[in-house]
Amino acid sequence: MQILASYLPANRRENGFTLIEILVVLLIAALVSGIVIPQAFKLIGTYRRHGQRGLIQQQFNQLPLRAYVSGRNYKLTNKHSPKLPQGWHLQVSKPVNYSLNGQCTPGKISLQSPLGETTTYTIAPPTCKLRVVAAD
Question: Which burial class, exposed, middle or buried, applies to 102 when counting CB atoms under 10 A from its CB (0-12, 13-18, 19+)?
Fold first, then answer.
């Protein structure tokens, strides 16, 4: 270290960073955070929507059981549907009737996410499970 110190100007300190070095590090940190943070929030939003879509599908797949347990027929229409998370919209193109024995009539629904992504499903007997027909 003594050899290197002899080549440095007398007024320069041996420890610490220069202003330029600090500014370069801050600039790099700002650029990285400007790219990473928005992508992380976008990814979190995507996972949230996928989770909500899964919960909605689960609610629809449980409708035959709901009719069976309640002892009443259930008709899925635009006015009578499971509660959806905020921002989600349901369009029932062909109403579905769920009978007491857990069977259903064929039907078709479209589910729109808060970002406007629409997924169309069919509901077909005997399982009455949602099947994806088309997705944006």
Answer: middle
Nearest to 64 by CA among 134, 130, 120, 133: 130
- Report the half-sphere exposure of 7 (CA within 13 A, side-chain side): 3
Q: How far is CA 99 from CA 48, 65, 68, 124, 130, in A?
A: 33, 10, 7, 13, 17
Residues 104-115 have pLDDT tens digits of 999 999 999 999
φ, ψ for residue 127, nearest 5 deg: -80, -25
Structural tokens at position 64: 């035959």
CA torsion sign for 103, 104, 106, 109 is negative
Q: List the domain boundaries for the chain.
A: 19-135
3-state secondary structure of 129: strand
Spacing of C-alpha 116 from chain mean position: 12
Give the start-end residues of each E strand in 12-128: 74-76, 89-94, 96-98, 107-112, 118-124
More confident call, 134 vs 61: 61
Using the 8-state DSSP alphabet, how is residue 9 labeled? -
